[in-house]
Specification:
Elements lengths: L5 E2 L6 E3 L2 E3 L6 H10 L4 E6 L2 H4 L6 E6 L5 E5 L5 H12 L4 E6 L4 E2 L10 H4 L7 H5 L8 E6 L16 E2 L4 H4 L32 H10 L16 E6 L8 H11 L16 E4 L3 E2 L4 H12 L3 E5 L10 E2 L7 E6 L17 E4 L20 E6 L8 E6 L2 H18 L4 H10 L19 H7 L1
Parallel strand pairs: 9-11, 9-12, 10-11, 12-14, 14-16, 16-17
Antiparallel strand pairs: 1-8, 2-3, 4-6, 4-7, 5-6, 13-15, 18-19
Helix pairs in contact: 1-3, 7-10, 8-9
Length: 453
């Protein structure tokens, strides 16, 4: 099993990257009391010599020997604060024992400069409990295809990006002067007033890069954010340009990303174990979508889809209403179903999607940016300029949390898409707030999921 970012801290209440780590070291007495207060009942015993280490100790059961010569023991009964402290003192008095210390539970930490803003990863109320999963899992060896607007260059993402493809067949929508090609660069999805059936103009979203950063931004690099599966690789697959993208292009992208053959397109050298599609429209599931998804799943690819942002039943929105996908609703920072999120019996799980405005505010009024999902984008309003970070909200942001967790799972264990979906659903926890209409089995919990696969 892989370990990363494991740290213990000696100063009471030390805040590290937005997390407060209680004092578990320091004086012997402080260590005892804090361990007992946390309910710890496992301890590490050091002996004066190897013969002493072979002796049995009263009140505990031997768990295993360590390579250091120490021994891990566990209390024979449940302990409260005073009971744990007393047991440690009793053990110290037994023959041959030099020292006793709590077998502390460490938490994964990252030094990314803006990690403290990523409430969606670690907050107890509505975060996905990612640090608990990171003690063993990092997504190494797993490829995630992001079928979206393409990718922008970003220092917090570049080293985790593999070659992708541009599946936009219409040159006008693609904005790159041609149709399909091997360059998934995001050329911008902006449009002017009156275009794309919209009365008002819209800037480029850099949507695909925001999604990709949530999944696999480079972590522990003192820069920006932490990705959920920081050792996974992203294959950017461009299907959305000006005015969106066609079903036919998206279906081919699903096939290619999962390792299938698409006419006149070179095979994908890095077939994805997970596909993220933070896209969709109001429709029943088309037969072409369903065939593409079914074939991807047969190849062993887990397909994760955003439920949609219309505050309606997901049954009316595709591809989230297709079979064999993991359909993801969005929750806010308080653990409620986000006001915009689709819902319904076809939702599988819920993940943090954030809210960056109050529900009663006029559309477009952003009053709670700290409650959105922070990730990697570009600062350009239409074309690319410099790299940046920004908070978005949406089921588009919720889905990559699930895709990232799937990557963590598959980095630890070989699983079929059906097994991945079942494990995701079996290890959720209830939303802290409310969900009207149906939010699947609950809020994803990375720690519980990785512990139980």
């Amino acid at each position: 099993m892989k370990k990363r970012y494991i740290s213990a801290f000696a100063t009471l209440g030390m805040a590290v990257a937005g997390l407060t780590i209680p004092s578990l070291v320091g004086t012997a007495q402080a260590g005892q009391e804090e361990a007992a207060a946390a309910g710890y009942d496992q301890f590490i015993v050091s002996y004066s010599d190897t013969s002493a280490a072979s002796r049995s100790l009263a009140g505990v059961t031997r768990v295993r020997d360590l390579g250091t010569g120490d021994v891990v023991v566990r209390a024979n009964r449940g302990l409260n604060r005073s009971g744990a402290a007393k047991l440690m003192n009793d053990l110290r008095k037994q023959a041959g024992v030099v020292s006793v210390e709590p077998d502390l539970i460490m938490t994964a930490q990252t030094n990314d400069s803006r990690y403290a803003e990523q409430w969606d990863l670690f907050e107890a109320t509505a975060g996905m409990n990612a640090p608990a999963a990171w003690t063993t899992a990092d997504g190494a060896g797993v490829t995630v295809a992001v079928i979206d607007t393409g990718i922008v260059g970003h220092s917090d993402l570049n080293t985790n990006v593999l070659p992708g493809y541009d599946f936009i067949s219409d040159a006008t929508s693609a904005r790159d002067g041609n149709g399909r090609d091997a360059n998934p660069n995001d050329e911008g999805d902006w449009y002017a007033a009156g275009e794309c059936g919209q009365a008002n103009p819209s800037n480029s979203s850099w949507h695909g890069s925001h999604v990709a950063g949530t999944i696999a931004a480079v972590s522990d690099n003192t820069n920006g954010i932490a990705g959920i599966a920081a050792k996974a690789k992203i294959v950017p697959v461009r299907v959305l340009g000006k005015c969106g993208g066609r079903t036919s292009d998206i279906a081919d992208a699903i096939t290619w990303a999962s390792g299938g053959k698409v006419s006149r397109i070179p095979n994908n050298p890095n077939p994805a174990k997970v596909i993220n599609m933070s896209l969709g429209g109001a429709s029943s599931c088309s037969s072409v979508y369903q065939r593409a998804i079914d074939n991807a799943v047969k190849r062993g690819t887990t397909v994760v889809v955003a439920a949609g942002n219309s505050n309606m039943d997901v049954a009316n929105f595709t591809p989230a209403n297709c079979n064999n996908v993991v359909s993801v609703a969005a929750s806010d920072r308080e653990g409620n179903r986000a006001f915009y999120s689709n819902f319904g019996p076809k939702i599988d799980v819920t993940a943090p999607g954030g809210e960056v405005r109050n529900e009663t505010d006029p559309p477009g009024t952003r009053t709670k940016p700290q409650d959105g999902i922070l990730s990697t984008i570009n600062a350009g309003t239409t074309v690319q300029t410099v790299e940046d970070y920004k908070t978005f909200m949406g089921t588009s942001m919720a889905a990559p949390h699930v895709a990232g967790l799937a990557a963590l799972m598959l980095g630890e264990k070989s699983m079929t898409p059906a097994q991945v979906e079942a494990a995701l659903k079996a290890n959720t926890r209830p939303l802290a707030g409310t969900c009207s209409g149906g939010c699947g089995t609950g809020l994803i919990d990375a720690g519980a999921t990785i512990a139980n696969i």
